[in-house]
Amino acid sequence: IIVYSRAAAAADVAHVHPGKKLLVYGQVADADVLANLPLQWQRRDIDDYVTRQPLQATTAGQDLLAGAALSRSAFACYFDLKPTLDAQRLIDFADQTPCVLRSADCMYVATGIGAGILPDDQFYDRFLLQAILYLTRDKDALALLEKRAQALREQRQRDDQAFVNNVANAAGIPAAEHGKYQVGMSKDNFGRFGYSIGEGLCVGNLSSNTMFSNGRQNVLLTVPEQPGRRSLAVTAIDWVGKSYRVTCGSLSYDLQFSLLTPYVRYGFGRNQQALMLPENLADYAVLITTKGARHCDIRRQEVIYDCQRDGALAKPWLLLFQNGDCRPLHVVFSHQLQAITSSVRDGAIEELRFHGSPEQPLGDVLCGWPWGSKDVNAAPWTEALPGEVLTRLDLFTAIALNYPVGCDEIFRIDQQKQRVHIVQRTRFQPIATAWDITPRDIAVMPPLMAFAIEENLLVHPESPLQDLDLPSKYGPVKAVMDSAVLRYAIDLPASSDIILPDIVCPDPWREQYNALFAGGVRWSWGGGAPADNVSPAIPGGGRGGDNISPFTWQFGLTTSLQGYHLLSPENRAKLRRRVQRRFIEPLDLFQYKNYARHRREPFSGQEYPVTFRSIYGLGVNYAEDFGTGYQYGDVNEACSVITWLGELLADRFGLRALAETHWAYFKYVMRHQMLIDDWAYHAGSCREDGAGAWIDMLNGEYAGMLSYARLAALSGDQAEQQQALYRAAKKSVPTIARLRFHRFLGEPVPFGDPGRSIALVTGFNEFSGAQVYRLPLRLNSNIRGAMDLFDFSQGAPGSLYRLYDRYAKPEVLAYMRAYTIPAFITPEGFQSGFRYLQPLAWFEADNELLKQWTDELFALRGERATKDWPGITVPYPVGLVMARKYNVPVLELCQSLQLSEAGYEPQERRLKLSIQADAQSRAIIPKPKSLSVNGRPQPLPITDSMPLPLQPGMNEIEALY
Fold first, then answer.
1. How far apart are CA 314 and CA 120, in angstroms?
2. Which pLDDT value is given to residue 388?
């Protein structure tokens, strides 16, 4: 069978072959296909949102469906079809026009591949598979598809329930409550560890040559140099750690690291020697033997330890440190060593060697930092170790020898208490030793969560935590001692938005921002690329590429839709046309090419799409026919934009069918976000190989997950909705905690204090921890575009502003007043971009100054905004300033409705809304003085917010303030 759908003709290719069935979807570009269709085909001229209709099966179509139920949603109507005499109609639209027809050798489907004609939670497009079986086999084969789907469904449910039961039992949760929990982000998640070899850890970093560093101190532990090439293979990977098999000539060893411990495990097995190459690491060593403590200046002693001379090790460790402030390295052994030797040249330590024997090979060696990422004064230790140091080393020896090999997480949503409850269970691999040491279980709290607990911000402990005085890059390390289980809760994100009505008054800004929109809507991207330069047939606009880059195609659509009701009728029509061509049509007809690329992470094998045509070199030296030379940036932003657009159109513009019929697409797009979540800072990354989440990247993930949760709810996928809410709750922590994280970095001074060196923590990075803007603040595009605070490159959802408003309004105001506003004010005019008007207006900057700054921005940046797509984003932030200026009531929620008209008349203080609603629709406005719906007065609530009493059909609402 040949499955066909093409946007561009390929005249030199034969698409129809004798003896093969033909299954044609949607757009037809080639004459040989058109000639074989059982119909006359004509593309409709669509200049607005495409019309949609439900489907109904004909009597003849029952064999095709084989008992499966058609979607109850509405599908797009792009074509006029006139069946030929021999055509058999299988599925029609509700108006009796054909949707699916067939002849003996050909079937035509008037939707695109991926449309959810037959909803199914196992297959991306159940109908496509069913149509292939129907055309090529007998009807009995169709039953196999349902059996396969059911088998996959039941297996997944069994696996997930077994996982939940296992963790819940370890946590002591009664069996009757296990059904309330779901598998969390520990499943199918490579976190920060994909693609690359060098990795940032909670304490220290591992470079691409496997050097382990902490601050200015570095150490490389390996086998002695051998002839032959050094190679590395990844043997295990998950969201908390990774394992390598390192081969050096004829010798090899294992290397394992985890975010759950400050130690790296080196599995030397039967190797009898290990080579340690230090760099600015240590001048002194201490070990404890049966003859007592041995303190060595390793710059002056070639044999640091000799078992025959010094006696056996009484404690299985070596402590390496400097005479002064340093980060001491703790080396723990599983087997009794024969000797430790050093090589010194010109007073510098070149190497240390650990010597075993055939009877006592090295086994496992663990290197770690028991004081974390802070310096301690080790000068007094050159003569004797204090008792508290010995006690700490005993504790961390027991912790190191119980190596964490995995972390399982489950969660449940508590709607009544508005919290997400999380259970984390660590799996350990105890390391057998020659000493009588009992390994200690320890359940470590993710450090950024521990910081949030200290700040009484979002996170609530549900287990007894002990502070280990082990600072990491992301916060303090707190843990439940002698337990593998940790429990905590996070505030459940609230569903709230910022929806502007039109502001009906003779304000000159209305004409100005409409002119900027009309100018900007003409363009695709900088350099004078016209808006019509991209199409499904030429998705790259002449820049190459066979696939659509959704992120590029969707430039500006989110923010412009936020300001939809502010626009003139002509500009509203232009916006609808752009949304139809750039977002809706690719969803309806061209899903097969509506991704930049499909990827496979080489070490985990996890597969996902990327939705941003942005290619960077990766720089990893992979073996031939393995891995990739490229990495994709900003994919987390692109995912968020797609889900946000879907939510906007479904909830405010009456296009719920987009979410219902294309749920498989949205779910597949967000797969990237499901397998790149970090355990330590609870977000994804702007690069596939891990670089961290900051400014626009970080903001986008929280808001994007909330949009995804909404799409899941509209599609009836409750499990995925809860998964998205749980992940949004986690992502809210770094999004907000960063505004207080300067305190952990040793800067407790308030914003604006002359002694302060950090303007703002913008997010978190794998290698350096907190990402910061330092003082004096230098204006750049990120700051001018409000990406330092809220924006994620394509706008800022109201849900994100509501989060900051609830948890960090004092910090936001203090930061803007201390740094950005003074930086923007110059004799030449206000130097922000239009986007910064959004936080300035929402977080209550001075009203008169806001008016002045807006006028200055129109004068400074207005002309430029007409020459590229960002012009279409200007109305919404200016509208927020106008909302402040005229005390406009801002809608707090619109769900599953069509807000066809929304306007506020400042002089009359009257809000008028036209809402097409059904039984699922919800809307909330600020409490008015009076309210009528379709001319009937309505009682007012006690609260400050008022849910509108919507009825199915048209609701004409008038509220006086």
1. 63
2. 98
